[in-house]
């Protein structure tokens, strides 16, 4: 690792100022992606700002019709929530126990791995990402591979998830890492149906044809005959683009069947 | 000053510790090299194998993916702190009784994860145990005896006969 200094601000106001004077400051959450990147020198910050203990980022609040989760809440903590089974199941499927004990919701979203599990639920539920300076809708948040709408120094504070009438997440897990080869999140809310896919493209995306079919008839049968083009999908040593396109259809149907 | 050593205060196996530590130091390196607690093994150094698993405030984490300063003010438990003197912890007894170790390289990490699991799991469901052990690799014993040992530990905690 290249040298950096380390700050642990005691308040949110202090955290937002903590980057001053550094050329490339970075927030540090669970470190489950960042520490690995530091070792590989893929990231070379000159200052780390540990945000995991800020009370504003550690809250879990129930508001009418929605669940608000602080950015520094861990995957393991989310796996234990009973508010939305689909979100808890998704969180419990990430990586392994040790990764879930350290890794956080905000870190996963800011990192924006193309196979991020959380991205599927944030997009599938139409959540809002609340930062120190604005509210970003899920549809505007994920821009590309490891790329989000966050500006330099922008801190994710909490995520507001609308609670669905029915939802489920289905994924084919890479047996070594736990990352989804493909994951599909399906949600039926009071207003609409949302279908979000992760692992298949540069970043999580929605499938409007699937959403329209499910809006007419919320059943796995309604998806029969819908095809997904492999053209823009990922191909790597784990799966071809054609196989991923096939999985999207299979997993969407599984999620609809499992939705509760 | 960039990269200069910083004071770190934490508890390791119940003992308060204060040291000057560079921000780039991994928790695994701090435990092994500074404190000499070499029971925490270093296998892959990339977060894959789980040999370096320790507890941070009672929860299993991979110490090669944690900076020492992330443990500031926290309680760290390593394999050296699990037994009470010569008396093995029930999870360790289960590993011994089930022959859940062969070369022993993965064992400290396995036991630390098993301790977290034994605390979390309601029942000794095999699928749940296998899912819980997903972050720990064993290259020689085979997982059968390890899963059986964790199942014994879960049942033992519930007061059931293994
Ligand atoms: C072995 C292993 C298996 C894994 N398997 C999976 C998996 O199956 N599915 C999956 O989705 N992920 C997986 N991950 C990744 C894991 O979910 C990470 O926890 C997550 O990607 C990053 O979260 P973190 O809290 O550790 O963030 P960090 O690593 O601390 O930070 C990641 C990035 O986010 C930034 N950041 C952190 N918090 C904030 C914030 N509040 N505001 C703005 N920026 C912020 C940091 O500056 C950094 O750039 C795995 C990781 C490992 C090591
Ligand atoms: S040494 Fe830490 S996970 Fe392998
Ligand atoms: S006992 Fe040898 S690696 Fe597990």
Automatic annotation (TrEMBL), chain A:
Record domain FAD-binding PCMH-type: where: 1-166
SMART domains the record matches: CO_deh_flav_C
Pfam families the record matches: FAD_binding_5
Source superkingdom: Bacteria
Native organism taxonomy: Bacteria, Pseudomonadati, Pseudomonadota, Alphaproteobacteria, Rhodospirillales
Stated name of the protein: Carbon monoxide dehydrogenase
Chain segments annotated as coiled-coil in the UniProt record: none
Listed Gene3D superfamilies: 3.30.465.10, CO dehydrogenase flavoprotein, C-terminal domain, Uridine Diphospho-n-acetylenolpyruvylglucosamine Reductase, domain 2
Keyword flag Chaperone: no
Keyword annotations: FAD, Flavoprotein, Oxidoreductase
Annotated GO MF terms: FAD binding; oxidoreductase activity
Signal peptide per UniProt: none
Organism, as annotated: Paramagnetospirillum marisnigri
């Amino acid at each position: 690792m290249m040298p950096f200094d380390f700050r642990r601000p005691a308040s949110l106001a202090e955290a937002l100022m903590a980057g001053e004077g550094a050329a490339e400051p970075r927030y540090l959450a669970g470190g489950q992606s960042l520490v690995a990147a530091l070792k590989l020198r893929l990231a070379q910050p000159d200052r780390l700002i540990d945000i995991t203990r800020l009370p504003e980022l550690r809250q879990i609040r129930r508001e009418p019709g929605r669940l608000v989760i602080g950015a520094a809440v861990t995957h393991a903590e989310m796996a234990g929530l009973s508010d939305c089974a689909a979100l808890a199941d998704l969180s419990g499927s990430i990586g392994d126990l040790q990764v879930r004990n350290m890794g956080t919701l905000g870190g996963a979203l800011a990192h924006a791995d193309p196979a991020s599990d959380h991205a599927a639920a944030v997009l599938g539920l139409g959540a809002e990402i609340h930062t120190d300076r604005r509210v970003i809708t899920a549809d505007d948040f994920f821009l590309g591979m490891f790329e989000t709408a966050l500006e330099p120094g922008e801190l994710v504070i909490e995520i507001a998830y609308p609670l669905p009438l029915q939802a489920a997440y289905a994924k084919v897990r890479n047996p070594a890492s736990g990352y989804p080869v493909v994951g599909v999140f399906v949600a039926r809310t009071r207003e609409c149906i949302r279908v979000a896919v992760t692992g298949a493209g540069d970043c999580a995306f929605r499938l409007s044809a699937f959403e329209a079919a499910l809006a007419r008839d919320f059943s796995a049968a309604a998806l029969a005959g819908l095809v997904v083009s492999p053209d823009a999908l990922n191909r790597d040593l784990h799966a071809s683009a054609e196989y991923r396109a096939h999985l999207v259809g299979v997993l969407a149907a599984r999620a609809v069947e499992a939705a509760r | 000053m960039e990269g200069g050593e910083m004071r770190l205060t934490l508890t390791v196996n119940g003992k308060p510790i204060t040291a000057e530590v560079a921000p780039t130091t991994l928790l695994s390196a701090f435990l092994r090299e500074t404190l000499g607690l070499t029971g925490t093994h270093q296998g892959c150094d990339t977060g894959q194998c789980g040999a370096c698993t320790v507890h941070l405030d009672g929860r299993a984490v991979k110490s090669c993916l944690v900076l020492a300063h992330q443990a500031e003010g926290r309680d760290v438990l390593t394999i050296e702190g699990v037994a009470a003197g010569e008396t093995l912890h029930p999870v360790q007894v289960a590993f011994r009784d089930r022959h859940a170790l062969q070369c022993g390289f993965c064992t400290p990490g396995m036991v630390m994860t098993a301790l977290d699991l034994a605390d979390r799991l309601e029942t000794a469901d095999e699928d749940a145990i296998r899912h819980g052990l997903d972050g720990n690799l064993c290259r020689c014993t085979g997982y059968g005896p390890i899963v059986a040992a964790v199942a014994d530990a879960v049942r033992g905690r519930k007061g059931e006969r293994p």
